[in-house]
Amino acid sequence: MKLMLVDGFNLLSRYYFATERRRALDPDVTLKGLLRKVDGWTNDFTHIAFFWDGPRETTHRYALFPDYKATRTGLPEPLFHDYVKLRAALTERGIFQSELAGYEADDLIGAVATAFPGESYMYSSDRDLHQLLSPNVFQIVPKKGEEMMMNREVFVATYGVRPEQFVDVKALQGDASDNIPGVRGIGPKTATILVQSYDTVETLYDIVRQEALQEAHQKFAKKLDGQEEVALLSKRLSLIDIHAPIETDWEAYRFGSHLF
How far apart, in whole angstroms, are the C-alpha atoms of residue 129 and residue 7? Predict the structure, then answer.
C-alpha cells in the first residue's frame, strides 16, 4: 500500500501564488491546476489524504509560546475561496480529509505516517517534516517547478545529521518563518556542528553545565550560556506530535472510499 499525505495549505498556497497573475483570465486557475495534480496521484497511490491546520490559538505550541507563527498573515480572500472550493472538490472525489483543533497538519501527517502499515509519502515543501523520514516514510518536496524525493539517506547526505536530530538543529538556530527563537548568535552551521558532536540539545546543555565542551567548541560557550530554557522551548515548538489522535481504519484513506 502507498499513501500520499498532503499538507493542504502548503500545497494550496504554492499553487495560488504560482497562478496569481492568471487569475484575471480564469478565477479557477488555481483549483484546476491543483486538482490535475491530485488526479494524477490516483495512478500511483492507493491511499490519499489531505490534512489541514487547526486554529493556531488551540495548539499546544501557542500555549507554550503565544508568539509562535505570530508573523504569519491571514489568508487573502481569493485564497480562502479557493480553500473552500478545494475542500468541496476533494470530498466529491472521495478523498479523505482531516482537521483537528489543537493540532497542525504536520502533527496529523506525522501520526498517520508513522502508524501506516505501508509506504507513506508526504507532499510538502515544509522542512519540519524531514524529522519523520524513515525506511517507510518519504517526503516529496516541490521546488521551482520540480519535485525532489527526500529519504533518510538523502537527508543525512544533505544535512549531516539524522532526521530525528533536525529538531535539535532547529532548536539552536531557530526559525524565523515560524517565529521560533532559537539561541541568539547560533546559525545553521554552528547548530549542525554542535548536534553532530553532542547528539541532542539536552546532552549539549548537560556538557555546558559541566563546563566540559570540547576545546574546539569553547568559543560557543558564551552564546550557549543561559540559553538552555529557550533552546528547549524551541525544540518543543519544532517537534511534531506523532501521538495526535487519528483515524486508523486505513480503508478510510483509500481513494474513493468516501463516495456513496
Answer: 10
